[in-house]
Amino acid sequence: MVMHKRIRIAIDGPAASGKSTTARLLAEKLGYMHIDTGAMYRAITLKALEENIDLTNEDRLTDLARRCSVTFERDQSGNRIFLNGRDVTQEIRNPEVTKNVSLVSSHPKLREVMVELQRLLAAKGGVVVDGRDIGTVVIPDAEVKVFLVADVDERAKRRMADLQKTGITTSQQQVEQELVDRDYKDSTRSASPLRKADDAIEIDTTHLTIDEQVQKIFEYVQKKYCLNNEN
After folding, report:
1. Superfamily of domain 13-212 in the CATH hierarchy
2. What is the pLDDT of residue 225?
3. Does residue 230 surpass a pLDDT of 50?
4. Looking at residues 131-158, what average pLDDT do you find?
């Protein structure tokens, strides 16, 4: 289904609220490109860990971001993310990256580099962009802004399921604590903190399936823009 008017849709929310999966499926439904900004920060974090860069060294991390190429490609399994031409889709989900991505993404200078790239990717429209500061910082003039929330217990279950798919075992208690810590770091950082844009619609996904939340946003977009679609 392809939408004639090529708008920009920003989807924000805390970790494991369903942002990335919802954004990907919504993009497919609309015939749009999906830009997963969280995956972009994870890719930089992975590279920094591989090069043993001090994750508190903002200048070195910013330089690293400037010399890295982060791109997306689609295949039958969905979006793949490439770091300097290397497929890192699975690697960026490992526990060490997850543990450190919030620290890396908190550096203002590094965020400036990444936000510039994200804006370039979104500039032509026809995109669904997800992250934590999309509707407030990256594309504050996006035509549609959505903020997803869910209780921490449900988010932990979702994250556990994702980890199990990649062969990583951990306890729900540990995952819940990691999510609480991540929420605090993301919400209190000085650079582009996680917060709902004033004009964003909020959707609680705790008791919704992925298909239900995708459909809810899709119907909102259709109603707001009175858009026609074609198969």
Report:
1. P-loop containing nucleotide triphosphate hydrolases (3.40.50.300)
2. 75
3. no
4. 95
